[in-house]
Design brief:
57% of the residues lie in helices and 19% in strands. It has helices at 25-47, 52-66, and strands at 5-11, 17-22. The N and C termini lie far apart (58 Å).
Length: 67
């Protein structure tokens, strides 16, 4: 198991901060893949509302709940 280092580089006046994370190449690759997959999944989920079938399904569900 590898050791991880997190170093605080700078604290900003607005309360944010800049950190440095030390990862192995494999860990960095895994985090990158996870980030890309998460972004793609969020994009697909968000894009559903623009698909005509999704709009129709939403209307049907509203009618069912109202009845």
């Amino acid at each position: 198991m590898s050791e991880h280092n997190v170093i605080l580089l700078r604290e900003n006046e607005d309360g944010s901060a800049v950190y440095q994370f030390d990862f192995t190449r494999e860990e960095l690759d895994a985090l990158t893949r996870l980030g890309i997959m998460t972004a793609l999944m969020a994009g697909v989920e968000n894009a559903q509302k623009y698909h005509p079938d999704y709009v129709e399904e939403k209307k049907k569900k509203k009618k069912t709940k109202a009845a």
